[in-house]
Amino acid sequence: MLAANPYLISLQGVEVSYPKNGNGDSGRSVILNNVRLNIRAGEFLSLVGPTGCGKSTILRLILGAQFPTRGQVLVDGQPVSGVDRDRGVVFQRYSLFPHLTVVENIAYGPLLERTSMPQRLLYTPAYRRIRRESLAEAREYLVRIGLNPWDGDKFPYELSGGMQQRVAIAQALMMQPKILLMDEPFGALDHNTRLAMQLLILDQWEDYRMTIIFVTHDLEEACYVGTRVIGLSQYWSDDEGKPGVGAVIVTDLPTPGGHPKPTAIRATAEFNALLEQVRHDALDPANRQRLQQFNLFHQDALKPEPLSAAKVSEAKEGTDA
Amino acid sequence: MRSFFRTDAQPSGVATWLLSILLFGLLIGAYLAGSYYRHQENPQDKVMPTVSEMLDGLKRAAFEPDRNGDLRLWIDTLASARRFGIAIGVVLLAIPLGVGMGLFPYVEAVFYRFIVFFDKIPALSVLPILFIIFGLDELSKIALIVIGVFPTVALEAHLRAKSIPREQIHKAQTLGASEPEIAYRIVMPQIFPKMLETIRLNLKAAMLLLIAGESLAATVGLGYRIFVVRRYVAMDIIIPYVLWMTGLLFLTDWFIQWVIRRRYVWVDK
Amino acid sequence: MSQVRSLVAALVVAVLAVTALPSLALAKDKFTLAVSIYAGWMPWYYAKDHGILKKWAERYKITIDAVEMDYIPSVEAFVAGKVDAAVMTNMEALAMPAKSGIDTTVVIVGDYSNGNDALLVRGIPDVKGLKGTEVYLVELSVSHYLLARALEMHGVKESELKVVNTSDSDIAPAFIANKNQKAVVTWNPMVMSIEQTPGVSKIFDSSKIPGEVLDLLVVNTKVLSDDPRFAEALVGAWYEVMSLMSQRGPEADKAMTAMAQRSNTSLNEYKAQLRTTAMFWTPEAASDYTRGTEIKDKMDFVRIFCFKYGLFGENARSVDVIGISYPDGTVQGDSRNVKLRYDTRFVDKAKIGQLRQN
Fold first, then answer.
1. Which residues contact C156 (CB under 8 A, 6 or more apart)?
2. Which residues on chain B are in Cβ contact (under 8 Å) with C173?
3. Same fold, A1-79+178-183+201-321 and A87-176
4. pLDDT at residue B268 above 50?
């Protein structure tokens, strides 16, 4: 093993592609082209990019719900083999279990950890005691995410969108995961609620200092909450000027303002310049930068080495089962 | 006439009530008229008994012991209810099976085609085979209902389990849930109230199969009684029995709806 | 508002039309006869298929429509007034139409069951051994009657065993397949197929109660009194087939082959069934039997069974509640409520050759 690998998460030459038409002879459709990414522990990484470029795919790769066609996804030096406790997730929808109350939802993970299957099946007195304690603990936690203790007995359908996402975040954080993955978690909420949720997640991050990967389409939100902003985009050209195949990281920048980040920073020129930069780099279809032109100024940024379309198809044929 | 076919019509409570009993009124009226005319021609007519004859028949079935000393209505109801209850109990097992099929591809591979096959068999056509193999008593009758309803419930559970959003499953995995845990403490409880609905909608079919089984070979039961008294054209027993069965079905249906409303407040919200 | 009025008017017209229809249909030159499959009734199928029925109908300037049905539905159709004549046993005639107030006339006594109905068992030596067994049969049918008489003749009470109502279409294959079924009562052709199963023996049959299970042709008395032509035509057709069958030889065999095919049996099987059916081949035989005293004694057994088992209606006060009349004018039961009539007028006409010949 390496001495002191500083990176908690590492994407090494990750490609995600699908055969076109299912035959393979008309080539492959590429989502992520040889993506290289290193993330340190404790980072709050915002991931932006045009719709459908593959941001959620990257999230799923780290989560372990999807596997790359080529390359590796490493967490703590080990390849990700599946979804487990070490990584928590908050989705935009379907975050909670509709048949459980708020406290039951929040206490779900810890309860699983503290009891065994036989105990649960047989509903032993020990199980009942632990359950009571866990639910009480969950109820106390409600205050920290901005809910009232009596909200704890409500079902998800009785809560507003914002409240549901608060509970979803609490549910994930109860597991104290090393990595928290958030896929457009505030996308369905109204503006004011979104601002409140941004503050909430920043608070939680500052308390626990876990690594957060935060996917969003809202640039301002991305630049505000994150310590690092990454733009994933398919609007790029290769060295010869031909349009690129698949998405690569076109921009990788640190965000201004220390932590705790004052909300006033959103008004500053520096902040807005960053916004514009990212928008231009990643989200403007007319702007197809060449590889050398990418703004990769974060200390951990890596130069992308995307493959050509031909290389993607041909190299794959050899290894197709 | 124009006002009858308005989509934004708002009939008053009284009007709605009146209209809804209109057709019942017509049917009962037609029956009473028919019964009256038949009795004019033939006072001993048994084909369309009068209301008082039917009430008398009901009284006899419920309160007067028959040739063998039994109170027919009650022992019949008990026997039929027992068969029905056991069959539905077995059908409930289709829910965990369906969930397993929906979530675990290996389980699906083993069971899916087999259950689809049994789903397509018209249950009644299997009846003679069942009786020949299993004999003429309780087992065949219960088996008939199970063969008729089990596949439907299993396939529905299978579909619903499959349509649980993958996000929920991943979420559960991040909370440390094992696969069986996900299947039976996250997916199954969510679809269970929907399964109760499915069973409720299949009560009619189950009842049909129960009666078919009882008409074939039995010594007691609601279906049995109807088929035996048919031999001496006792419509004054048959019609009350039919109404009794309908009433019981109504009650069961309503009860299940009540259970779903009370215990599963969160469903469909 | 006028729209509502016209709608109501339309409804009234519709209801009237529907209720008037039945009376329109009863212009009486067309008569219906319901027949069902049974060894003793196959001659009706032959008469229908080979134009004999048509010929006799034309002689009387009427139309006769022979409708093929299952047995009980055919009796129910007769009770409901949907057919004018039907074939049935004396027990059904008493328990179904007569009991329901349909005045019924027996025009032909065709035969009596002389072994066609039987009690078959596995491993039980005699009727006394039936105690504690489950006996599978069609409850309240002729089979039940047979069992009741068998028990009576051997001093066993029905409460000492268990009767399981079984539908007639499944009773034979189920008994053959399930070795744990110990006793069954049914009729031919099921009896023959069950008898052939190893381990099964017959311990009682209708030859031990000859004359009690009669197979009849009955006609609705009102239809008959309105127009006797129908009955005469039926009797004529019947005895023409009877004489054809009773002369041994190739013609008779040809006819019986046709009948066997119609009932899905072979000629030999059909002949075997006929052997256990005591046919009254001639009008003399039928008339003599119907005018005799034996028929009254046998009917007495039948009506007592019907009363005891509630077939006269659960409120019937006594066995006499239904009156049965005979050719000599005597009445069994309530003479103010005669609903079943044994009538030899037409058979007698056939006897002395007074039916129309062309």
1. C127, C128, C130, C131
2. 128, 132
3. yes
4. yes
Predicted local confidence at residue C8, as pLDDT: 60
Average pLDDT, rounded, for chain C: 89
Task: Report DSSP state, residue A115.
Answer: S
* For testing contact with chain C, the best of B231, B235, B237 (most C CBs within 10 A): B231
Find the distance separating the first CA and the last CA of chain C, reported in whole Å. 65
| Nearest in space to C86 (alpha carbons), one of C237, C239, C221, C218 | C218
* 3 state DSSP class of A252: strand
Q: Which of B213, B223, B225 is nearest to B57 (CA)?
A: B225
Structure confidence at residue A318 (pLDDT): 44
From CA C266, how far away is CA C247, in angstroms rounded? 20
- Tell me, which fold does domain B79-224 have in CATH? MetI-like fold (1.10.3720)
Mean pLDDT of C194-199: 91
Per DSSP, the residues of C170-216 read THHHHHHH-TT--EEEEETTHHHHHHTSTTEEEEEEGGGSTTSSEEE
**Of chain B residues 91-120, which have a CB less than 8 A from chain C?**
none
DSSP state of A262: P
The CATH number of domain A87-176, selected from 3.30.470.20, 3.20.20.140, 3.40.50.300, 1.10.10.10: 3.40.50.300
B218 and C159 within 8 Å at the Cβ level: the answer is no
Contact state of A175 with B170 under an 8 Å Cβ cutoff: no
Residue B148: closest CA among B108, B98, B208 = B208
pTM equals: 0.81
Q: What is the pLDDT of residue C78?
A: 95
Tell me the CATH architecture of domain A1-79+178-183+201-321: 3-Layer(aba) Sandwich (3.40)
SS3 A236: strand
DSSP A285: T
Task: Report the distance separating Cα C302 and Cα C296, nearest Å.
Answer: 10
CA C184/CA C244 separation, integer angstroms = 36
Per-residue tokens: C227: 């127009």
Rounded Cα gap, residues A213 and A179, in angstroms: 8
Q: Taking chain A (321 residues) in consecutive chunks of 10 residues, what is each chunk's mean pLDDT?
A: 74 88 69 91 93 91 93 92 92 92 94 87 89 93 88 93 92 93 92 91 90 94 92 85 84 80 83 88 84 81 79 57 40
- Going from N- to C-terminal start, the domains of chain C cover 28-113+212-351, 117-208
pLDDT at B231 over 80: no
**pLDDT for position B111:** 97
Contacts of A83 in chain B (CB under 8 A): 170, 173-174
CB-nearest to B168 from A94, A113, A120 is A94
The answer to whether A145 and A139 have CB atoms below 8 angstroms apart is no
The full DSSP string for B58-103 is: HHHHHHS--TTS--HHHHHHHHHHHHHHHHHHHHHTHHHHHHHHHH
pLDDT of C167 reads: 85
- Which of B166, B176, B265 has the CB atom closest to A113's CB atom? B176
Contact B269 A98 (CB under 8 A): yes
Q: Considering the domain C28-113+212-351, what is its CATH architecture?
A: 3-Layer(aba) Sandwich (3.40)
Q: Concatenated DSSP letters for C5-68?
A: HHHHHHHHHHHHHHHHHHHHHT-TTEEEEEE---GGGHHHHHHHHTTHHHHHHHHTT-EEEEEE
- Mean pLDDT across the stretch C172-186? 91
Cis, bond preceding C189 (omega within 30 deg of 0): yes
| Residue range C117-208, CATH number | 3.40.190.10
Q: What is the pLDDT of residue C163?
A: 94
HEC assignment per residue over C87-148: EEEHHHHHHHHHCCCCCEEEEEEEEEECCCEEEEEECCCCHHHHCCCEEEECCCCHHHHHHH
Closest to C238 measured CA to CA, from C287, C283, C289: C283
